[in-house]
Description:
This protein has 12 helices and 8 strands.
Amino acid sequence: xxxxxxxxxxxxxxTLEQANxxxxxxxxxxxxxxxxxxxxxxxxxxxxxxxxxxxxxxxxLFVAAQxxxxxxxxxxxxxxxxxxxxxIGIEYVVLGHxxxxxxxxxxxxxxxxxxxxxxxYGITPIFCCGEPLEIREADTQNAYVAxxxxxxxxxxxxxxxxxxxxxxxxxxxxxxxxxxxxxQAQEMHASIRSVFAGxxxxxxxxxxxxxYGGSVKASNAAEIFAEPDVDGGLVGGASLIADEFIxxxxx
Length: 251
Ligand code: PGA
């Protein structure tokens, strides 16, 4: 059975004091996590070790980096390596977020290299995909997302691809308050799963968790997560409000 995953993406937000308060709140909250439903917190890099420590009391809470570089180590000032992440016990990395693609020019090919190095180090990529508004308006979103998957992931074999988590985030829904409808989310998630089934097998496709991201809130989480191909969420803004995110995890 594929896992349910509720992931927080704090992005470039929160002072140390705010991070402490949020992490304390999540560590203390009654959360409905278990071996089939986990929560992952993608915090800014300076708080990774702190988050690991604060959340260590609950075996179903994990910490993720928001990015990493494609090389093991070396003269790459300002970058974060999987070797460093591994050494501090990080098990997940968000890759290919639309903000990385748009503002930092990350291409599908570059992301393929990042996926490879994460898997080499046993770190699970939470691989983001999703279309901009003009693609949605042209109704070519399924092919657009399939190409993102193909160019970054389809060099992997079945056992490697099964280790990934996918996050579908329509760019027009990120931080805009405009969520995809339940039907739009389900339709895309089913399309992504069928692309995996076609390239690999039904079994592989069924094993991959596909998260929805884009203006998920406590008030809409339960209905989106109830769609059959939606296996959880990647949550930005609402993950910075303790009560909201606790409700989303428990939705
Ligand atoms: P949002 O961000 O929940 O603030 O829309 C989601 C994301 O970018 O991961």
